[in-house]
Design brief:
The complex is a heterodimer of chains A (405) and B (490). Chain A is of the alpha+beta class. Helices cover 28% and strands 38% of the residues of chain A. Classes of the chains: A alpha+beta (405), B alpha+beta (490). The interface between A and B is medium-sized, with 30 and 25 residues.
């Protein structure tokens, strides 16, 4: 763990420098991206390195490359198909965010074993991060392995320590839709079965806006049997029958083509009781008896629908999320932002993920530094009362968090 | 029961009948409406299914297109790097995991056959462990399993859900990849290896489009191997040439040193011999003069004639020895040029005075053609006089009667160029290079019976070079010769 409280004599804002490389030599890509980022910080000390490395790279070599330039600066990160930064959205890249904090202090922590017990691991990471944090705790960022992990349980675990209304951003590490291996990085070490936490404290304001833009398609259905993160039956039939009906494929075809991949395009929408909004869940596996395994818990809902996304409504959602974050700051100017977008959105925008980034920049301003990546599910807020909101794990979502110092 | 009661009962009955009829109609209508709504919902669901299936189909086409574009773009970038490398190992280091992933595969192998041993070995790979590599190399070299992989034409495409022919099953076991594609690498129309790429995930089906992509890569590798071989050959040949040039240069340097040593020895010898010859020659000449003067008694006419010949040949021998000594001195640097400002006109006038009798004797016309503005030059006056004297004497010697000699004087940049042109017998072209060599005499000069020592031009060359000038000769047989030399102005 690297607790870090800065005390520079001259107050100044957080400085974020972004470097990226698409060199196909993994070590060189690591060094190039880090050199580019740290160079831009100039004489400022690099307090924290956040790395997003595409799964095409030899992860260990890329990390060695990063360390060869960054030295001992505290570091964390996650694998992702593409990074999202104010400089662009970079697919198949090593992207490095070198950060020099002033008003913000941070503590980072990690814990292994998230696949087996996400809730305990979620608690443990939050506890470690909290033990080194200063009192003005404001925001928690969490990444975790996405392979057979119930991500809502790791969030529940974190909330048990930080408080149920404590803002949490981030999501599950992503890969190239294979859903077999995802990677996390902590202080230049490579991991696969961990959760990482970054707790930010200090005198700043952070507001998160989020939206998905997916629409229900077909008739609503009844969720008749479910337990934790498995939907066993829909309309009193094995849950997979819904996909068989609508996609016109057999169970074997759905298994062969990857239900996770198909589910990213056509997730399940749960209409929460008393609300108009749909909470989205992507299936990641099929059980022996035709149940659908989700990467987060099933919520009590009125009805369940198959959902479909299109570029226009997804972009409207992007605008909505950015506006929500900006309006939340009231009249404060955003200093920097963090963006996490579900991998299904990358699949939807295909060759043009930049359009989503441009939409955000149009709203928050061209010069606001942004860092983030595509994740497998996103932590995002849902209003619980007039002035409160609780963070949930959801698929297909984009979250924009704006910071003002 | 009163009629009023009966009527009331009838009315009630009618109302009940009407009511039940109305309810029935209402129920039927609601049922019909529900059925209609159900039909609409079913229709909507059916339309939703069509939309989803269309979306899936479009997505699949788009995915394949994206994959192909990314693959081609990646290969284009690789091609640019390949074209700038001649080292085959560098090429293989470029075909790494990131590149394979960008091409849309999770496993890859490039195996090449050793030209001499015929053993097939892995040159680069992605997605395999060390033990996998050893096992694959061992199995692929067993029997004739690799024959199918080395077929020049075509490719092997195996998908996990497709039926496999016998060797495909064996290859699936060897490569530990359910879906794979192999393409041969051919160099000079011969298969020297193959590329394998495959996927562990059953989702991605391999297509002929993938085979086309892999064929492009195979072609790039083939070109790179050929380039590398050509480069290696060229490099070796260059190395060999460099070695031979180095050896020859060393040999030439050694021979040059030997020549210099011999030349020094020759100069020393000539100098020593000349010195030793000069003393007795002086005595011979002295005694001949005494005898001719009759100081030792009267000499007869015949004796006098012989004594005059002794004197004449002694003088020739003295000039020869002096020339030899001068050449040796200039070569050894013992003679320093005493450079002074001199008038070219004056220098030439004094030479003309000397040679005038010979010119008149042969009725030769001598012309001085000067184009210089400043009549000044820095030179050793005595040595410059020897140069003019030698060249003009030669010109007179080799020019027949009534011939002409022209001395051209011209300023060329920082030099004054002198050209002595005659209308003499000329020098054969094969002798031109040798005329400045010591003791060389042209054949036609000897044939014409013109006497000389073969040292004059050698001495002239040494003097001109000692002034940092250059000398050259041009000649046409039967038409004449042009001897030119330059002397720096300052």
């Amino acid at each position: 763990m690297f607790p870090c409280v800065l005390s520079l004599s001259k107050p100044m804002a957080t400085k974020i420098a972004i470097g990226y490389s698409q060199n196909l030599d993994s070590f060189s890509a690591g060094t190039e991206a880090t050199r580019l980022a740290t160079y831009q910080l100039g004489r400022l000390k690099t307090d924290l390195i956040i790395a997003f490395i595409s799964p095409i790279y030899e992860q260990g070599l890329a990390l060695k490359g990063i360390r060869s330039i960054a030295g001992d600066a505290p570091m964390l990160g996650s694998s992702s198909i593409a990074s999202i930064t104010s400089k662009g959205s970079f697919k198949d890249s090593v992207t490095i965010c070198a950060i020099s904090f002033d008003n913000i202090s941070f503590s980072i922590a990690f814990q292994k074993g998230v696949r087996k017990d996400p809730r305990t691991v979620g608690s443990s990471v939050a506890r470690k991060a909290l033990s080194n944090a200063t009192i003005q705790r404001q925001l928690y960022m969490m990444f975790s392995d996405s392979f057979s992990v119930n991500a809502s349980n790791s969030l529940i675990g974190a909330h048990e320590i930080l408080g149920t209304l404590f803002p949490v951003i981030g999501g599950g590490s992503a890969n190239n839709f294979q859903h077999n291996r995802t990677y996390q990085y902590f202080n230049y070490n490579l991991y696969e079965d961990i959760a990482i936490g970054l707790l930010l404290s200090g005198n700043f304001t952070a507001v998160t806006g989020s939206a998905h833009g997916w629409q229900p398609i077909g008739t609503p259905h009844d969720l008749t049997k479910a337990k934790l993160n498995i939907i066993k039956e829909i309309d009193k039939r094995p849950a997979i029958a819904l996909y068989q009906d609508y996609l016109g494929k057999s169970i074997d075809e759905l298994k062969n083509e990857g239900i996770a991949r198909l589910g990213a395009s056509f997730p399940l929408g749960m209409k929460l009781k008393g609300k108009e909004a749909y909470l989205l869940r992507s299936p990641i596996d099929i059980t022996e008896d035709g149940g659908l395994v989700l990467n987060a818990n099933v919520l009590e809902c009125e009805e369940i629908n198959l959902m479909i996304g299109d570029r226009d409504s997804a972009l409207n959602a992007t605008k909505k999320a950015a506006m929500e974050a900006l309006n939340g700051l009231k009249n404060l100017a955003p200093s920097f932002g963090m963006v996490y977008s579900d991998i299904s959105r990358f699949q939807l925008f295909r060759k043009d993920p930049q359009i989503e980034l441009d939409t955000i920049k149009d709203i928050i301003g061209e010069n606001v530094p942004l860092i983030g990546c595509y994740t497998c599910g996103v932590y995002m807020p849902i209003p619980t009362a007039e002035y409160t909101q609780q963070f949930y794990f959801q698929n297909q979502v984009l979250s924009v968090t704006l910071f003002s110092e | 029961m009163t009629s009023y009661t009966i009527i009331l009962l009838l009315v009630l009955l009618l109302i009940t009948l009407f009511s039940s009829l109305f309810q029935r109609n209402k129920r039927i209508s609601a049922e019909e409406k529900n059925r209609g709504l159900g039909d609409i919902a079913r229709q909507l669901d059916d339309q939703a299914k069509i939309i989803i299936k269309t979306d899936l189909a479009l997505n699949k086409v788009q995915e394949e297109l994206d994959k192909k574009i990314t693959g081609l773009y990646t290969l284009h970038e690789l091609g640019q790097k390949v074209s700038s490398t001649f080292n085959i190992e560098d090429l293989f280091s470029l075909i790494n995991k990131p590149l394979i992933s960008k091409l849309g595969f999770s496993r890859a192998l490039i195996m090449l056959k050793n030209e001499k041993t015929g053993v097939v070995s892995i040159k680069t790979q992605a997605g395999y462990t060390e033990s996998d590599i050893k096992r694959i190399e061992k199995n692929i070299n067993k029997g004739d399993i690799s024959t199918a992989l080395f077929k020049k034409s075509g490719f092997i495409l195996v998908n996990s859900d497709a039926e496999k022919v016998q060797h495909e099953d064996v290859l699936t076991d060897i490569f530990k990849t359910e879906s794979f594609l192999t393409v041969p690498i051919t160099v000079k129309d011969e298969a020297v290896g193959f590329i394998l790429m495959g996927n562990i995930s059953s989702y991605t089906k391999l297509t002929e489009g993938d085979a086309e992509l892999l064929s492009i890569l195979a072609s790039q590798i083939s070109t790179a191997i050929e380039n590398s071989q050509l480069y290696t050959e060229l490099f070796r040949s260059h190395q060999d040439l460099e070695r031979r040039v180095r050896e020859r240069t060393q040999e030439l340097a050694r021979l040059n040193e030997e020549l210099k040593r011999l030349n020094r020895a020759k100069s020393t010898f000539v100098s020593a011999v000349s010195h030793e010859l000069r003393t007795p020659l002086t005595s011979i000449k002295g005694y001949a003069s005494i005898l001719m003067a009759g100081k030792l008694g009267d000499v007869s006419a015949a004796q006098k004639e012989r004594l005059e010949k002794i004197d004449k040949h002694s003088n020739s021998l003295t000039r020869l020895i002096n020339n030899l000594l001068d050449i040796a001195r200039i070569e050894s640097g013992k003679v320093q040029m005493i450079i002074k400002d001199i008038s070219i006109k004056e220098a030439l006038d004094s030479i003309v005075d000397i040679i005038t009798p010979q010119i008149k004797e042969k009725n030769i016309s001598l012309k001085i053609d000067t184009k210089i503005k400043v009549d000044k030059i820095k030179a050793d006056p005595g040595q410059l006089e020897r140069v003019f004297l030698n060249l003009l004497s030669n010109a007179i010697k080799f020019t027949p009667e009534k011939g002409k000699i022209i001395v051209h004087i011209e300023q060329k940049n920082d030099f004054i160029e002198f050209v002595i042109e005659d209308s003499g017998i000329g020098i054969p072209i094969q002798d031109l290079e040798k005329v400045f060599e010591e003791f060389f005499r042209s054949d036609n000069a000897q044939q014409q019976g013109i006497k000389g020592t073969g040292l004059g031009l050698s001495l002239v060359k040494k003097i001109v070079e000692a002034h940092k000038g250059k000398i050259w000769v041009k000649s046409d047989i039967g038409k004449g010769t042009r001897f030119g030399f330059t002397i720096p102005r300052s």
